[in-house]
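Prompt: I keep going back and forth on a fold encoding question. Comparing notes only helps if you start from a blank page. Show me how you would write down a chain together with its backbone fold. Please set it down just below, with no commentary around it:
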Amino acid sequence: MPSSLLEPEDRVLSTMEKDGSRRWLDPKVSKGSFLTTRRAFAYFLIVVFTVTPYIRFNDKPLVLLDILHRKFILFGFTFLPTDTILLALTLVTILVGIFLLTALFGRVWCGWACPQTVYMEFVYRPIERLFEGTSGKGGKPRKPVAGWRRVARYVVFLLVSMYLAHTFLAYFVGVENLAKWITGSPFDHPVAFLLMAAVTGLMMFDFGFFREQTCIIACPYGRLQSALLDRKSLIVSYDKTRGEPRGKKRKSDDGEGEQAGDCVDCHLCVDTCPTGIDIRDGLQMECIGCAQCIDACAPVMAKLGRDAGLIRYSTQAAMDGEPSRLLRPRVVVYPAIMLVLLTALTVLLSVKKTADVVLLRNLGNPFTVMDDGQVSNSMRIKITNRREMAVAYTVQSASDVVSRIELAENPLAIDAGDSRTEGVLIVLPRSAFSKGVCDITLHVSDGAGFEQEIPCRLLGPAGSGKPSGGKAAGTGTQTNTPQGGSL
C-alpha cells in the first residue's frame, strides 16, 4: 500500500507533525491589554502560591494537606478521617463551582489561573526567551541556542523547578518540616530528599520538555468542554461573518477593487498561540482561552482601519446571530446545587466540636457477673482530639446507677490532632437491669469547654436466679455497635 495513503491531510495534534515527530512551539509574544492583565494576575497568583503555606489562621496553617497523618487543614478547619462527609461536601462544592465557572466563562481557568499556564507562559518561556535573545517578541531564535547559553538556561530551569518543588511540598508536609529537610543532611531524611528530587525532576520534565502537551494530552479538562460548555458560554471566538473570505484586496474582471473579508490571513493569531492552533477553525479542545490571538489581531485591524473584535471573547450563539441569554438551565441548576451543598456544609461545621467521641462494644460476652454480684460491661472508647494542643479528657458516668468506671488512664491525655482508643469497664449492680438492659449516659469533658454526653445501653442478666456468667444474654445483636457518634 502506498505510504501516501497513510499520511493525514493535516496534523493530528497541534504539537505533532504529519510524520508523527514532535512539533516544537515557539509562540510569538503579542502585546496587548489582555497580556498585561494576565501577566499581572499571574504574578499575583505566584505570590499567593508562595506565601500561602506560611500563613496561619486560628493557630493553624491556612492550607495543609497532610496525607501521611491523614489530616487536611483548609482555611482554619481541620478535616480528619472521620470527616468523610464534610470533605466530600467541600470537594463536590468546588467541583460544581468549576462547572458553573466553565458554563459562564469557558476555559478562563486554563488561560488565566491554571498553574501550568501561569508558570509556563510567565516564568519558563520568559527565561527561555532571555537566553535565546527573543525577549519581548518570542518566536524561534535566528540561530540555534548552544554552548553556555543552553547550559545556563537549564541551570535556571533547575533552580526554578527546585523552588516550585519545595513550595509545592510545603502544602503537604508543612513549612516547619520542609525547613528541617532543607537545612539538614539528606542522609538524615533520605525518603524526603528523594521525594523532593523526584518532584523537582517532574517539574523539569513538565516545563522543560512536555510543556504545552500537558494541556493538550494529559489534562482531561479540555476533553470535558463538550459537556461543560454550551452555545452561550463565553469563549475566544473568530467572527467568520466578518473575516471570510480571507485575503487582501483583489481585482475583479471589470478592474474594480473587490474587498475580501476583514481577515488578511496574516497568520499572527496562529504564530502567537501557545498551543499552536488556528482559532479561525472554531472552538477546539486545545484552546486554553488565553486571548493571545485577540491581542495579535487587534493591532492589525487598527492598521487597516477596521473595527477591532474580529477575534474576541464571545459566544457561539452570538457569533451566529442568536440572542445572548445569561440565564439558562445549567446556570440556574449549578448555583442551586451549590447553595444546597454550602448550606449543608455550614450546618455541619457549625455543630462540629473540638473532639470526636465514639463508644464501641467489645467482642466476646456482652457482660460478666462478678464475684461480688455486680455486672460489668466491657467497652471501648475512641476520642479524637481536634485541637492544636494536647488535651486530657475525663470519662465519667452521668447516671447514679453506675458503681464505677475503670480505664487504664483517666483522664486520657491525647496529643494535638491525635486519636486514642482505650478499654472501658462499666460496673453496676444487678438490680439496675430491667429485662436484661440498662440505659445510662457517659459524660466526656476536657475542662476547656468541651463536653459530650454519650448514651449507652448496657446488657445484663434477663431474669432472676443465679447468674450464668452472661452467656444467657449473649445474643450478639449489639456486638461492636457504636454507642456514641462523631461530633
Observations:
- Residues 262 and 306 are 7 Å apart (CA to CA).
